[in-house]
C-alpha cells in the first residue's frame, strides 16, 4: 500500500488547467486534498484497490490517476472539456497511470451502458454556483446510477443538510468523513482576492443493503 506522503508527492507532479472554464466551474483539486480522499477511501474502507472506479468531471485527472496508483483494477475518467482531457492524457503519461478517458457530457449520456458498472465513484463536482445551480446534485444523481456500492464526493459545507438528505433519498447512507478548507486561487476576472478558503465536506455515500 502506497503511503499517503508518497501519493501526495506523486500527484504534485501533475499539471492543472491552462485556462479554466468559468461556465464549467473548473477548479483543480489540490494534491493535498486528492491524496487524502483516496487514501481514506482505500485504507479505511477498501474501496480503491482492485475496484472499478469512475471519476466524474475528472478535469486534469488527479483523482483518476491517484486511484490508478493505489491499485484500482479499472479507472475511467469522464470529462466534458477536450482541453482538460489533453492535460489529463499528458498526466497519465507522466506517471504511467492506466486510466481510460471519455469525453462526454455526463448529464446527457450517463449512465447508459455504465449503469451499475462501477464499484466506486469519486468526484469533485461543480459546487452549483454562478451558472451551474443544482449541478452538484445532478452529479450525485448520476453517480448513484453508476455505482454498485460507494460514492466519495466534495460538497460545500453550507449545503450539507440538503446533500445528505438527497443521498438518503437516492438510497445511500450518507456520512461526512471530514470538513476541509478548499483553497480557491484567484482564477477568474471577477475574483477580487488572491485566494479564498471555501468550507467543504468530504462525504461518503454507501448504498444501503
Tell me what the structure shows:
With 209 residues, the protein is an alpha/beta fold. Helices cover 33% and strands 28% of the residues. The protein contains seven helices and seven strands, in the order ααβαβαβαβαβαββ. The protein has helices at 4-11, 31-43, 62-69, 82-95, 106-109, 135-146, 160-169; strands at residues 52-56, 74-79, 100-103, 118-123, 147-156, 172-185, 195-207. The chain has a seven-stranded mixed β-sheet, sandwiched between helices.
Question: Which SSEs are present, and which pair or pack?
Answer:
Blueprint: H1 4-11, H2 31-43, E1 52-56, H3 62-69, E2 74-79, H4 82-95, E3 100-103, H5 106-109, E4 118-123, H6 135-146, E5 147-156, H7 160-169, E6 172-185, E7 195-207
Parallel strand pairs: 1-2, 1-4, 2-3, 4-5
Antiparallel strand pairs: 5-7, 6-7
Helix pairs in contact: 1-2, 2-3
Q: Characteristics of this structure?
A:
about 210 residues; alpha/beta; seven-stranded mixed beta sheet; 7 strands
Gyration radius, rounded: 16 Å
Largest sheet, described in full?
7 strands, mixed
Mean pLDDT: 91
Order of helices and strands: HHEHEHEHEHEHEE
Coarse morphology:
globular
Based on helices, strands and strand pairing, what is the structural class? alpha/beta
Strand content: 25-35%
| Uncertain stretches of 5 or more adjacent residues | 186-191
Helix content: 25-40%
* Main β-sheet, spatial strand arrangement: 3-2-1-4-5-7-6
First-residue to last-residue Cα separation: 28 Å
The number of helical runs is 7
**Strand count:** 7
Amino acid at each position: 500500500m502506497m503511503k499517503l506522503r508518497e501519493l501526495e508527492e506523486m500527484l504534485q507532479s501533475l499539471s492543472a488547467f491552462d485556462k479554466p472554464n468559468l461556465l464549467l466551474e473548473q477548479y483543480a483539486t489540490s494534491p493535498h486534498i486528492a491524496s487524502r480522499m483516496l487514501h481514506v477511501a482505500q485504507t479505511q474502507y477498501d474501496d480503491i484497490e482492485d475496484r472499478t472506479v469512475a471519476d466524474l468531471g475528472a478535469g486534469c485527472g488527479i483523482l483518476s490517476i491517484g486511484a490508478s496508483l493505489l491499485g484500482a483494477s479499472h479507472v475511467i475518467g469522464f470529462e466534458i472539456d477536450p482541453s482538460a482531457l489533453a492535460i489529463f492524457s499528458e498526466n497519465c503519461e507522466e506517471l504511467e497511470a492506466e486510466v481510460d478517458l471519455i469525453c462526454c457530457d455526463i448529464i446527457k449520456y450517463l449512465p447508459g451502458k455504465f449503469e451499475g458498472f462501477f464499484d466506486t465513484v469519486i468526484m469533485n463536482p461543480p459546487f452549483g454556483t454562478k451558472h451551474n445551480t443544482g449541478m452538484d446534485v445532478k452529479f450525485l444523481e448520476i453517480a448513484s446510477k453508476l455505482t454498485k456500492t460507494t460514492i466519495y464526493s466534495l460538497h460545500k459545507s453550507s449545503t450539507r443538510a440538503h446533500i445528505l438528505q438527497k443521498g438518503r433519498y437516492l438510497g445511500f447512507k450518507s456520512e461526512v468523513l471530514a470538513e476541509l478548507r478548499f483553497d480557491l486561487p484567484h482564477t477568474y476576472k471577477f475574483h477580487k482576492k488572491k485566494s479564498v478558503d471555501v468550507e467543504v465536506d468530504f462525504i461518503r455515500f454507501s448504498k444501503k443493503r
